[in-house]
Every structure is written in structure tokens, then in C-alpha cells.
Design a protein that fits this description.
The complex is a heterodimer of chains A (225) and B (337). Chain A has 225 residues and is mainly alpha-helical. Chain A has a domain of 76 residues. Chain B has a 6-stranded parallel β-sheet, sandwiched between helices. In chain B, strand 1, helix 5 and strand 2 form a beta-alpha-beta unit. Classes of the chains: A mainly alpha (225), B alpha/beta (337). Chains A and B meet through helix 2, helix 4, helix 5, helix 6 and helix 7 of A and helix 3, helix 6, helix 8, helix 12 and helix 14 of B.
Chain lengths: 225, 337
């Protein structure tokens, strides 16, 4: 029973959601079923928060390696949680919106979360440059093609690319680097992306059918009845 | 972290604080000084190239230093760069200017602060263009931080004199419906009824109390949608549900890394226009004749691209020349046997 009930629920929901796309009378049922997603998402929020506290709490308790970072994580988590839940320093009080200007939550968002998030992403530029220098080599035919394509795309986004090929006459404008970059994006890239998308779609259809028909049961775990 | 590294970080923080508080007005290099700096960096890169050919590879910290300079120094320079307009960006602009005053535009903010440097300039220019043409904006988000990013962009937009002079009112000219969890299921249910997903706006005002959206039942009441995306749920989900099933006319602004995935939708006309990364944002500013942050940041991005290109060339030169020298040594060693 422990395995049969989830399989029945999966089959039922999957079938209704497919029917809701192809049969208008079942459309409303599909929308109703999708409400379950919201209910499950609420549990996921609790589960995610609980898991974060458990893992980092354990690290601090055991004084594991780099436990200081865990302490910062938990301090940030609880501070944001308290600022949002109790609407600390909110000009409109507890009834007002959590993101009201002047509230502690909004100040933490504007002055700490926002710049920290952007800084984390900005670090990528340094690692990409370093990785390109050390690993982006024309070692073989495939790598050379990739390198040339990347070169044209990068140059096409810079003034160097514009100036370097500005002398090419208008009738051969495709050979100008910015236009060549656009062509790479709209022709070879498009073909590759379509192939990947069709492949993924076929995989999703086959996996969905396996799930609906109860053939695929690995999502139930390895626990035997 | 070693004591030396800690000291280096503290020195950097001290210099930044000193610059922030001690410098009375923003630093700006003249065009001549800017070109001298560019020439100096090019010269140092040439020296690195020669040294690499001689077999002396540079460490990654040198690469980091160059990228840092390439990103920071152009912010103080007074040089600009040509920004060619691509067809996909022009499509977004054309779609917006084709709308009649009073048309309703839905903008979904599906990103968070890490992607803001690329997507926030797009949002600001899009808002500015829409509001200057008397279009009505309905904001929402499938990412929790999205509506807050929208608030930041809207505050900035409302400061522009031509927008401020219109005395726009919340709830009548623009509205922020806030975040709703549920990913593509939210889009699916919005196809039936917006109110079922957003019973109140971001401030807790009831949906029916907002004059702008009171008569907006589903996507059929929206004239154009613009979607800002940095991942999942994102443009793919909007196209698959809102565009394909409900026939929404939609354009998108994406981070540069995921722009390549959107071209199939653009070619199939499921997307009406696409802004890709900071470059797309700068092109959009040019198309709308509203030069802003993206155009300024583009110089930084171009410089860093050139630095990356230079280091790829240097790295490959070292690889091939090192390979040749290895082969020569092997041949010499083989000849000795």
C-alpha cells in the first residue's frame, strides 16, 4: 500500500493534467489539480528552512570545519525571518506590506542582500577570465570551432569588432564581426538549441509516460514493502 | 586565509572607503587620459604575451588584476562605444511604440539581485518607455525577489523629470501584484483568472479595488507582456503556457548566459523581441533614445571582453609554442638514443 497509493495519485494527476490540455471540459479540473502544487510548495518552504537550520546547527554544535560561516548563515536567516515575520520598524505597522519603504526587511534587502547578491555574481567574471586563459585551448578540431565561435561572439559585443571590420563593403556585410555574431546566434546556435530542445521534449514525454503508467518507481525510494 | 591575504583585503577596503568618503566629487578621466590608460594596459598585455612565448606563464592573480582594472577603470572614463542595433531588440521597441496610449502591459520580474546588473537597466528603460507613452503597467513576479526589484526600478523611473511631470498614480497608471508561488502553474491559472492568483497586490489592497486591473480578467485583456528572466521559472515557461496556450503577445529580456536558449522561440515568432544581457539592455536604451546605466556599463563589459580575448590568445600561444618546444626536446632526446 505504501507504494501503491503514491503510484495511483501520480497516474491520476498526470492523466488529468494531460486531458486538461486536449479536452476543454477537463481544463477546469487541471487548474484545480494545480492548486495542490501551491499546497506542496508551502511544505517545501518549511522543509527547506528546517533543513537549513538542522545542517548548519549541527555544524556549529560539532564545531566542524568552517563552522563560522554556518553561524553567519543562521544569523542572516533568523534576522531576515524576524524582520519579515514581525515587520520590525515597518512604518505602517504589522498590517502594512513587508516590503514597505523604511522597514527593516526592506533596508536589509536594499543595503545587504542586493549588493551581496550582485557581488557574488560579479565574481564570475574573474573566474571565467582565469578559466579561459588556462583551459580554452584549440586542442582539437571541435575545440577550435568552439574557440572561433566564442571569439566572434565576444568581439561582436565590443567596439573592436565593429571597427575591425567596418571597412567591409555593405554587400558583404555578413562578414562584419557584429553581423557574424548575430548570424552565429540565429543560425548554428538556433539549430543546436532546437536539437537539444526536441531531445529533451522526447525524453520528458517518455519519462512522463513511464511515471503515469507506473513503470518508473525510483521516485518512491528504495524502501521495500 | 593567510595573514598576508587578510592584510591585502583590509588595504583594499581602506582604499575603497577613502575613495568613497575623501573624494569630494566623482572622478572622471578626460578622453586623452582614458586613451593613455588603455594604451598602457595594451602595452603591459604585450609584455605578458612576449614573456609567455618565452615560457613564463602568468599567475591567475595577474589575470584577476587585469579583469578588475578592465571592469573598474572604464567607469571613470569619458569614452563611449558604438552600439549596433540588433533586429530582436528593435522588435521589442517596435512592439511597445505600436501600442496605443492606455494599453495594458504585463511585466513579470523573474530574477533576483545577482542578475540585477544585467536585467535592472532593461526594466528601468522598459518602464520609462512605457510610462512616457502613457501605457499602463501591471507588474508581477514568479521569483520572491522579483516584485522588490520592480519596486526599485519603478522608484528610479518615477524620478525622471518627463515621467515625474505626468503625476502618475499607483493603482491607476501602474500596479505591483507581487509574488506568487507555483511557477508555471501560476501562469496557467492566470490564463483563466488573474484574481485567483493575485487576490491582493503587493501592499495588500484587494484586486477589485485597483482601478487598473479591476477589468483585467486574464491574458486576453493584456496588450503586450514583457518578461525579465534569469532562470527557472522563466521565459521558457511563459512561452510554453501563456504564449502557446493563451496567445499572449510577449517579448523578453534575459541574462546573457540564457539568451542563446531563446532564439528558437524568437525565430518561431513565439517571442516578439528579445533583449540579451547587458548588450541587449544598451541596445534597447539606444533604440528608445534613453541612454542610461547599460550604455555606461557596456564600456566596462567590452573592456573585460577584450581582456578575456587577449588572455585566450596568450594562453593559446603558450600552449602551441610550449607544445612545439616539447616536441623539439623529445626529438632531440630521441635522436640521442
Amino acid at each position: 500500500m505504501k507504494r501503491k497509493i503514491p503510484v495511483i495519485i501520480t497516474s491520476l494527476v498526470g492523466t488529468v493534467l494531460i486531458l486538461s490540455v486536449f479536452f476543454p471540459p477537463a481544463e477546469r479540473m487541471g487548474e484545480d489539480f494545480s492548486i495542490f502544487f501551491d499546497i506542496i510548495a508551502v511544505f517545501a518552504f518549511f522543509l527547506g528552512g528546517g533543513n537549513l537550520v538542522r545542517i548548519h546547527g549541527n555544524k556549529i554544535y560539532k564545531k566542524a570545519r568552517d563552522w563560522g560561516f554556518s553561524a553567519v548563515t543562521l544569523a542572516g536567516f533568523f534576522l531576515m525571518l524576524a524582520a519579515g515575520l514581525f515587520k520590525i520598524a515597518n512604518p505602517g505597522g504589522i498590517a502594512a506590506d513587508v516590503t514597505a519603504q523604511g522597514s527593516l526587511f526592506q533596508m536589509l534587502y536594499d543595503w545587504i542582500f542586493n549588493p551581496l547578491g550582485a557581488s557574488m555574481y560579479a565574481l564570475l567574471a574573474f573566474y571565467v577570465a582565469s578559466a579561459s586563459y588556462r583551459a580554452f585551448r584549440a586542442k582539437n578540431k571541435e575545440a577550435t570551432i568552439l574557440l572561433i565561435a566564442a571569439f566572434i561572439i565576444l568581439l561582436g559585443r565590443t567596439p573592436l569588432g565593429v571597427y575591425a571590420t567596418a571597412w567591409i563593403p555593405e554587400q558583404f556585410s555578413l562578414m562584419q564581426i557584429p553581423n557574424l555574431a548575430i548570424w552565429i546566434m540565429t543560425a548554428p546556435n538556433l539549430a543546436g538549441q532546437r536539437a537539444i530542445m526536441i531531445g529533451i521534449a522526447l525524453g520528458v514525454i517518455s519519462m512522463s509516460l513511464r511515471l503515469i503508467l507506473g513503470v518508473e518507481r525510483t521516485y518512491l525510494g528504495t524502501d521495500n514493502e | 586565509m593567510t595573514r598576508g591575504e587578510l592584510m591585502a583585503y583590509l588595504v583594499i577596503v581602506a582604499v575603497v572607503l577613502l575613495l568613497a568618503f575623501a573624494v569630494p566629487k566623482p572622478i572622471s578621466f578626460s578622453t586623452t587620459v582614458s586613451y593613455i590608460i588603455v594604451g598602457f594596459i595594451a602595452l603591459v598585455l604585450l609584455i605578458i604575451f612576449v614573456r609567455t612565448i618565452q615560457g613564463n606563464m602568468v599567475g591567475r592573480r595577474i589575470v584577476f588584476l587585469f579583469v578588475g582594472m578592465a571592469v573598474i577603470l572604464p567607469l571613470f572614463m569619458t569614452i563611449s562605444q558604438p552600439i549596433p542595433l540588433s533586429p530582436e531588440v528593435k522588435q521589442v521597441y517596435d512592439a511597445v511604440v505600436a501600442l496605443k496610449p492606455g494599453s495594458k502591459v504585463l511585466v513579470s520580474f523573474d530574477y533576483d539581485p545577482p542578475s540585477a546588473p544585467e536585467l535592472q537597466p532593461m526594466a528601468e528603460t522598459f518602464f520609462r518607455l512605457c510610462l512616457s507613452r502613457d501605457l499602463k503597467i501591471v507588474i508581477m513576479g514568479l521569483w520572491p525577489q522579483g516584485p522588490q526589484q520592480a519596486e526599485i526600478a519603478m522608484r528610479k523611473t518615477l524620478e525622471y523629470p518627463e515621467i515625474a511631470s505626468k503625476n502618475l498614480r499607483y493603482g491607476i497608471d501602474y500596479v505591483n501584484l507581487g509574488f506568487q508561488t507555483g511557477n508555471e502553474f501560476v501562469i496557467q491559472r492566470m490564463g483563466g483568472d488573474f484574481k485567483s492568483m493575485f487576490p491582493t497586490d503587493l501592499n495588500g489592497t484587494a484586486y477589485d479595488s485597483l482601478p487598473l486591473v479591476r477589468n483585467v480578467r486574464n491574458f486576453s485583456n493584456i496588450d503586450y507582456a514583457f518578461h525579465l528572466s534569469a532562470g527557472y521559472p522563466g521565459t521558457v515557461e511563459w512561452v510554453q503556457v501563456a504564449v502557446d496556450r493563451y496567445g499572449l503577445k510577449m517579448g523578453a529580456g534575459n541574462t546573457a548566459v540564457q539568451t542563446t536558449q531563446m532564439y528558437p522561440y524568437l525565430r518561431a515568432r513565439q517571442l516578439v523581441g528579445l533583449l540579451g544581457g547587458l548588450n541587449g539592455a544598451a541596445e534597447f536604451e539606444r533604440a528608445a533614445d534613453m541612454i542610461g546605466k547599460a550604455t555606461k556599463f557596456m564600456v566596462s563589459q567590452s573592456f573585460s571582453h577584450i581582456i578575456v580575448i587577449a588572455f585566450i590568445i596568450i594562453g593559446n600561444a603558450a600552449f602551441f609554442l610550449g607544445d612545439k618546444s616539447r616536441k623539439r626536446k623529445q626529438e632531440a632526446a630521441g635522436g640521442g638514443h
